[in-house]
Amino acid sequence: MHREVARCLITSPICVRSRLLSRFCQQYSPLIRPLSYAPRKASEDATASPSKPLARETAAEDIASMLSNSPTPSSAERLGPIASGHLGSLSRLFSQNQAARKETADKLPTSAPDANVLDYSISSLNPDSRLLAVEPPHHLHIYAHKHNTHVTLTRPNRDAIISVSTGNIGFRKAARSTYDAAYQLAAYVLGRIQEQGLIRQIKELELVLRGYGAGREACTKVLLGSEGRFIRSKIVRVTDATRLKFGGTRSKKPRRLG
After folding, report:
1. What are phi and psi of 151, to 5 degrees?
2. pLDDT tens digit string along 76-110?
3. How many other CB atoms are found less than 10 A from the CB of residue 73?
4. Cα dihedral angle (149, 153, 154, 160), rounded to 10 degrees?
5. With contact defined as beta carbons under 8 Å apart, do 208 and 239 qualify?
6. For residue 237, which of 16, 26, 112, 206 is within the disulfide window of CB 3.0 to 4.6 Å?
7. CA–CA separation, 243 vs 145, rounded Å?
8. Roughly how many angstroms between the first and final C-alpha of the chain, as a whole number?
9. What is the pLDDT of residues 73-82, one digit of tens each?
10. How do strand 149-154 and strand 160-165 relate by DSSP bridges?
11. Residue 127 burial (CB < 10 Å; 0-12/13-18/19+)?
C-alpha cells in the first residue's frame, strides 16, 4: 500500500503531490510535520484526477476518499499539537492583557491635575493632603554697574517690594560708584527686610546678580557677613543675569583715557 502511494505521488503533478502527501502524513503518521496545507482550488480539483495505470487505482481511490471525506484542518491543527498549545497560551495571554488594560483605564481619573497650577485652597494647607502647593521663591536683584548699584526685592510674581540705590541713602555723584556705598546699601536693604517683617513671608530666595561693578562684591560680602545671617539660609539659587552683547549694530567708539 505504501509503495503504491509513493509511486503515485512521484508520478503526480506537484500541486496534487503536496496535497496528497500532507493528507497521507496526517492520516498515517501524525508525528511527521506536513509539508504543505495549501487550500484546494477548483482548477486543482479538475487536474487532480488524471488517468492512472490499473496497478495504482486502489491507492489513488483511498487517497481521493481521504481528500473528499476529511474536513479542512484549522490553523491550530495545521501547526500540530505543540504549536496549537503555544497559540492557545498566546491567545489567553493577549486576552488577559486586554482585560488588564481595560481595568487600568477604568481606574484612571478622567482629568489629571496640572502640576504647574498652584493649589491655594484650604486642602493644600493640610499636611495630610497628598497634593501640597510649592510656592516659587522671592527674588533679590543686585544690579552693580560702573557708576551705581541697585538692589531690588521682589515677590514671586516679580512685583517689587523694596527698590533702592546708593543715591537713596545719601551718596552723590562719584561716591555712588564706590565699594563702601554698595556695602551700606546692601546692609540697609537687609535691615528693612527685618524691620518690616518680610522675613516671615520669604520661604525661599533667589539671588540674581547683574553687572561687574564694585557693588557685586560688596553685596556678596554683606550676605556672607553678620548682616545676612537671618536670610542666608533661605537662598536656594544664585543666578547671573549679566547681559552680553553679540552681533547687532556697531558699538560706540571707546574713550581714550590716560
Report:
1. -125, 130
2. 454 445 444 555 555 565 566 667 667 776 766 65
3. 14
4. -70
5. yes
6. 206
7. 11
8. 121
9. 554 454 445 4
10. antiparallel
11. exposed
